Task: structure prediction
Amino acid sequence: MSGVERLDLPYFYGDEADQYTFFRMPKALFTEQCFDDLSIAAKVLYGLMLDRMQLSVRNEWFDEEGRAFIYYTLKNIQKDLRCANQKATKLLVELETKGLIERKNPGQGKPAMIYVKKFDAVLRKSGFQNHENHDSRVMKTMIPESRKSNTNKTEKNKTDYSDTESIYSSGDYETRMDGSDEYTYYRDYFLEQLSFDALLCDCPYDREQLYEILDLLVETICSKRPVIRIAGDEKPAQVVKSQLMKLNGEHIKYVLSCMRENTTRIRNIKQYLLAALYNAPMTISSYYTALVNHDMYGGGG
Result:
């Protein structure tokens, strides 16, 4: 195809695709006849809006009637979709005309409030629910090998950060939003994901270190570097970011415990802490298993 630069990219091996995170993109937008008149770009924009709804709910952006809304400026839409102002405006009108969104102008120079609408009722009327039930019955009659190939690692998705439920990768975090919006987005994410208020209550003497960990996580996630150094090794930035996004409050307590037990001199505390956070999801189970075994059968009496 003329004008397109071909990239020299490696193949996927094993489950390496799990290193990516994804935007939510409802399958129904592409399979149901009632959405055939929507452009592909409008469907993608709706998916990006759904992604922002998670941030709105965490920030409790509700109107006086309890309805959740998002802020998504024309400037950010243009940046995310790589389009001009006229195109971004056209897509908003397209979604609003279809009834998938509703815009409200608060005035006083403030950005428009965008209500992202649910389309469940439309799908039920179109028979989508029956279609889904039919598919589920077919899945139950499949042989185990065939069913396994169609599960798309459902069990793993239950424990991860909903990163494999849609078609658009957010590997390029930096292009999703303005710098300040991006920092706020991921800071809010980790405050929620780590149950940060609970951590402050449970670890009152580690308050300063907890905020250092929070800042380090957000700084690393927002980094624009293609590789990030972990324990002396250069790792792809997206692999590191994907691992850090899995952290929860128990991982942080585990890291704090390991640091208290460490008696060796740490030359670069920032690098040491980042490596500990990166490795926490992979080592926490073995650590506590070994601790229990030591107490039961070792020198704990």
